[in-house]
Structures are given as structure tokens and as C-alpha cells.
Design brief:
The chain has 297 residues and is mainly α. The chain folds into two domains: 164 residues, Tetracycline Repressor, domain 2, CATH 1.10.357.140; 133 residues, Up-down Bundle (Four Helix Bundle (Hemerythrin (Met), subunit A)), CATH 1.20.120. It is flat, with a radius of gyration of 20 Å.
Length: 297
């Protein structure tokens, strides 16, 4: 029997994708208002859950159900190349799903609920008959929730050992909605191939220009709502900082809209960091917010 290469297992988990959920998880930790030092063990468990386990599981599941396409387009990937032989890609997906749920259960009931929801979306994203990835509205929405909203919620739930404050949940959901636009940026590089394969990304459905405008609005509007919430909660300086980040994003969006196909990758590399920086700024606003402090007392 052909042996699995350990390096192939790590490769099929795509570690580069772990940063986004781990960053959102950290935002949840910060926004909870709880001290970090006494909770280091559960925080480390949460980092493991958000990155290598749940996100890693989603990547293995995706590679398994895309193995036939990858055999044509990217035959060197671990599953089509045989470095993960037979049905071990599927078995690995089951094993990692089980480990994820076990750790989520240990970390708390609300973490388990979030883990169940996130893993269900991860499987539905790639697995027939759902294949949410075949439609840009559903697929990008699922990824946005899994990469931003659920990890943020999980970080706060771990620290509070219960259901986080509604303000924390609101920010997590808003930034997850905005991430839908970020996911759309990744779809401009393969419009021709997606059209031929029947993958209905937003650029395929709306055209390059139309989908670019939608992506910009989807990224910008949740941040406007965040600014309004921070102002209403008495955090004008944090709100002003996000206004500044949004202005920079707006200028970059103007450049992106001039040629979406050509500039999508550039905007993703330059503009998205301003978006995720706003996540942490808003998390720090809540960390010292009286309404959060009163909820902890």
C-alpha cells in the first residue's frame, strides 16, 4: 500500500489560508474584554481550532471533491498526484472533522455550535449536491462567514464561556458580510475557465465591471455600519480610524474599477489589509467598552 507523505498532508491543508480565521479569532479574543494571560490554554486551543482544524478541514474537503478537475489543471496537487493515495483524502476529511468537533466540544457549548455550523458550510461549499462554490452569491457568503464571522464569535465565546455580547456578534457578522466582496476578488482571474466549467461566480454572472462594483459596495457598506455603531457606542476615535481606512480603500477601489480583471489581485494585496486592520481597531473599541464591561460583571 502506498504510504502518505506527511508533507502532503500539510500541503493539502493549505496553511496559507489559516491566517484569515486566526486573525478573526484574535479579534474575538480582544473584543471580549477578558484578560489574555489567565486564558492562554483555551486561547491556544481556539487558535488550533480556527486555523489548522476547521479551516484545514475545509481545504482538504475542497481538494477531495475537486480532485478530478485538479487532475487536469493542477496534477501536482497531493490528491491527484497520488501523494495522498486512494480515498485517504476523504478519510482525512472525516478524521479532521471529528477532531474539530471534539476540540470545539471541550472549549464550550457555543464554540461547538459555531464549529458545527462552520463545518457544515465547509462541506456544503464543496460537496455535491450542494456545491455552494458553484454560485458566487452562496459560495462567497459561506467563506465570508467561515473566515471572519464564526472565528470572531468563537474567540469571544471561548473567553466569555458563553454567548458573546450582541455588539460583538454584530461586528463579527458585519465583517463577515464584507468578506463576501473580498472573496469575489479571487474570481476575476478565472472568468473564462469558470464560464466553460459552469462555475457561476459573480464575474461570470454580472460581468467584470458589474461584479467589481458589487464587490466594492459589499466591502464598503458593512464598514459604514461599523462606523455608525462605534459612534453610537461612544468610540469616536476608533470610528475615525476606520473612516481613514475606508477612505484609503475607496481610493484603491477607484483604481480597481478602472480594470477589474487586471487590478483585482493588486487590490486584494493592497486594499484588503486596510479592511482587516479595521477589524482589530473595532475589536479594541469593544475591549474597553462599558457595555461589554457591564456584561462581564
Amino acid at each position: 500500500m502506498q504510504r502518505i507523505q506527511p508533507s502532503a498532508i500539510l500541503e493539502v491543508m493549505h496553511p496559507v489560508t489559516w491566517f484569515a480565521p486566526m486573525w478573526a479569532f484574535t479579534c474575538g479574543i480582544v473584543s471580549s474584554g477578558h484578560p489574555v494571560a489567565p486564558n492562554l490554554l483555551v486561547i491556544l486551543g481556539g487558535v488550533l481550532l480556527a486555523g489548522p482544524l476547521v479551516c484545514g478541514t475545509s481545504q482538504v474537503v475542497n481538494d477531495w471533491f475537486d480532485r478530478h478537475v485538479d487532475a487536469i489543471n493542477e496534477p501536482d496537487r497531493p490528491i491527484p498526484s497520488g501523494r495522498i493515495p486512494g480515498r485517504w483524502g476523504l478519510y482525512l476529511s472525516f478524521i479532521m472533522t471529528g477532531l474539530s468537533l471534539a476540540l470545539a466540544w471541550v472549549l464550550g457549548i457555543w464554540v461547538l455550535y459555531a464549529g458545527l455550523f462552520g463545518l457544515a458550510l465547509a462541506w456544503a461549499y464543496s460537496m455535491p449536491p450542494f456545491r455552494l462554490k458553484l454560485n458566487g452569491w452562496w459560495g462567497n457568503g459561506a467563506v465570508g462567514l467561515c473566515y471572519e464571522s464564526l472565528p470572531w464569535f468563537t474567540g469571544a465565546a471561548i473567553m466569555t464561556a458563553g454567548l458573546p455580547h450582541w455588539g460583538i456578534i454584530a461586528l463579527a457578522v458585519l465583517y463577515g458580510i464584507g468578506a463576501h466582496g473580498i472573496m469575489t476578488l479571487n474570481d476575476f482571474k478565472a472568468i473564462e475557465g469558470d464560464t466553460q466549467l459552469g462555475v457561476r461566480t459573480l464575474p461570470v454572472q454580472l460581468g467584470a465591471d458589474g461584479s467589481a462594483r458589487v464587490a466594492c459596495w459589499v466591502m464598503a457598506l458593512p464598514q459604514v455600519v461599523v462606523i455608525g455603531l462605534l459612534l453610537s457606542w461612544g468610540h469616536p476615535w476608533h470610528a475615525l480610524a476606520i473612516v481613514g481606512l475606508l477612505v484609503v480603500q475607496g481610493l484603491l477601489m477607484v483604481w480597481f474599477l478602472r480594470d477589474p480583471v487586471k487590478n483585482a489581485r493588486g487590490y486584494s494585496g493592497i486594499g484588503v489589509p486596510f479592511y482587516v486592520s479595521g477589524m482589530m481597531i473595532s475589536a479594541f473599541a469593544l475591549r474597553f467598552d462599558p457595555m461589554i464591561a457591564s456584561a462581564l460583571s
